What we know:
Order of helices and strands of chain B: EEEHEEEHHHEHEHEEHHEEEEEEEEEEEE
Largest sheet of chain B: 7 strands, antiparallel
Order of helices and strands of chain A: HHHHHHHHHHHHHHHH
Number of helices of chain A: 16
Strand content of chain B: 25-35%
Helix content of chain B: 10-25%
Shape of chain B: elongated
Structural class of chain A: mainly alpha
Oligomer: heterodimer
Number of strands of chain A: 0
Low-confidence stretches of chain B: none
Shape of chain A: globular
Mean pLDDT of chain A: 85
Radius of gyration of chain A: 27 Å
Largest interface: A-B, 17 and 22 residues
Amino acid sequence: MSAETLADRITWPEESNAASPRPRRWLPFSPWHLFLVPFSLLMLLPLIWMVVTSLQTQKESLVFPPTLVPKSLEFSNYAHALSAAPFGRWFLNTAIVTVAVVISNLLLCSLAGYAFARIRFFGREVTFLALMATLMVPFPVVMIPTFLIVKALGMFDSLAALIVPNLVNVFGIFMLRQFFRTLPVELEEAARIDGASRLSVLFKIVLPLSLPALATLAVIQFMWTWNDFLWPLIAIFSERNFTLQLGLTVFQTSHTTNWPLLMAGNVMTMIPMLVLFLAAQRFFIRGIATTGLKG
Amino acid sequence: MAGLTFDHVTKTFAQGTVAVNDLSLQIAEGEFMILVGPSGCGKTTALRMVAGLESITSGRIVIGDRVINDVSPRDRDIAMVFQNYALYPHMTVAKNLAFGLRQRKAPKEEIDRRVGEIADMLGLEGLLKRRPAELSGGQRQRVAMGRALVREPKAFLLDEPLSNLDAKLRVAMRAELKRLHQRLEITTIHVTHDQVEAMTLGDRIAVMNEGALQQLGDPQEVYDRPANLFVAGFIGSPPMNMLRGVVSRGRIEAGDLAVERPSLPDGEVVVGVRPEAFLIAPDGAASTELTVEIVEPLGDEVLVHGSIGGEPARSGAELDEELLPLERGSRARITARLDPSARPSPGDRLPLRVAPERVYVFDARTGTALT
């Protein structure tokens, strides 16, 4: 090798700084932010509008074009909304349904997902494909059969009608199966040789390593159940079994809608979800990134 | 502790691949047995069948006096060290070590005592509170060994436990492994593709190829008396040199080499010569002349690669990257391990001789060793 080529191959620290391939920064932040910041504000707009409306007077809320800065802050809207209907009871109903559904999904989807991911049994692939196929069926198609089953089981107009049909969700099975398959199988083999049963392997090795996926599933399921409107509308009849989403309809009649109170109710309904999302965000984002799924 | 027997064990996978073919092997109590062979030879499958991680298609595996074919892995009372260690990433070293005992519901004081003993024996005392991600490769390896040993199993299964370590650490851990076995005398099956590991560690070695046992014996015996062409080519580094030859009236001629073997019938053979069997010949005593191409001095010896007169042959144990096309000509590439005082350099023509008793002869068709 000649002297020149050898010298060419050595990069001196000063040189490599000077010859940095990155263009000089002309902004103190990445240019992407110029696009992302306005875009995220746009996404926030409905939320802001909701909060603002919840603090306006009935009259102000009907002005066109809408005002984004209210003249006075009507915090009493919240008190009115709460006293207008048994929101405490509905909140409790929604919480019971959601917590039950989330916990049962975490448990049952883990069990099913693990079986599909790791246990060899007759008809595994066919069963899994059949389950996956049900994901393609839209809810309105199964709505009436589900209603008939729930009615036959004597659960119509009870919280059980909201819990039982949602105890396990095919999406959750799919998501956890995909995640479990990414874990090194040797860990499970080592645990089995160490004396763990299949269930201990699942609960002591697989699930602790699957926290991101479990957190993701919990948040998604929480969101779906908490926000569900159509099924409660069909399955629940009496006001004391309402969920929050059903309860919000008291502000809407066929002729008028009390927007400020409706939005105040909405804001209160959203808070638990917001808190959960912020708490689980770290896991949630990692979970989506690792499963390659878009939530 | 107990002996372990493979009794006509066969494993056929769903796609029809026969991974292990009629393997019969008896491992004595406390013996260190090596299963060695190229990748895909069925050695790991054989080990996994002992562990209960693969089902057995036919035949029996016996530990002690119990047939374990249908016993679940947890009830076989064996321990295994995986190639990638498979330490539980969410547990500390102490919990990793204790996991097996806790699964077996051992009393807490006993768990603490045994974890302490093992940590002490393997030098892990300072690491007990760390997680696997915070350990070096060698430390992880020791934790994996500890996790297997802490249960005092009947048999100890090692699946290429040293292959993820760098060369220097591997030599150190190899000695460590041997010391550990000498001290504990647990029946051990160690799977490896590294024939140096096989030679140095094993009480006996079982050479496998394409799912079948090729030869079983103590390392020196396998090295000195390979049963067939494959074993001859696989055991030994650099590998044995192979030349095509013909036997005619008790005399083998293979290129430049000629050896008298009156007992052999006429026919085609493969002649094998280990690199160290070549000696620099005094004037007039040379049987062949090596044209030197590459010289690799190793300090106490020198490896000389070059060619001699003769037609090359293959053992079937070559690595893919060694499978250069063989020229069917009058020159064969060989390697000789010589005394460094010879100071050969590329282009030299070295007069060499081979002691006739150090020439191996194999049937060219079946590959079996002929004497």
